[in-house]
Design brief:
Layout: H1 2-10, E1 24-25, E2 30-37, H2 38-47, H3 52-59, E3 63-71, E4 74-80, H4 82-85, H5 94-105
Antiparallel strand pairs: 1-2, 2-3, 3-4
């Protein structure tokens, strides 16, 4: 996913078709949500030591939600809460729209 999202960030306009399931176009680029086993992300947390809230969240769960975002500023990715994950819900809802607006204010959606 990192390689794909790096390509999505760097190549504008895109010269390829995205066929990976679950990648959502946003106003600023693309986003995707994946669920990983906590054990898989354990090694990633060491690299994110400057973000203790993400590390604490991942340590307390068997499965963690991990999001990827492309923006004009680059690639952003990491463990996310259920409130952020709501942005990826398929069905329109107030919860989904609130999550997307919050991400847009952060420059991620």
């Amino acid at each position: 996913m990192i390689a794909l999202f790096t390509s999505l960030t760097c190549e504008q306009p895109l010269s390829f078709v995205i066929e990976a399931e679950g990648i959502v176009p946003t106003d600023r680029g693309h986003a995707a949500l994946r669920v990983y086993a906590e054990a898989s992300t354990a090694t990633w947390r060491a690299a994110a030591a400057e973000r203790p809230e993400a590390t604490e969240h991942a340590a307390n769960a068997e499965a963690v939600q991990y999001a990827y975002f492309t923006t004009s500023a680059g690639l952003a990715h990491g463990v996310v809460s259920g409130r952020v994950a709501a942005a990826f819900e398929a069905e329109p809802s107030t919860r989904r729209e609130n999550a997307r607006r919050a991400l847009a204010r952060r420059g991620l959606w």
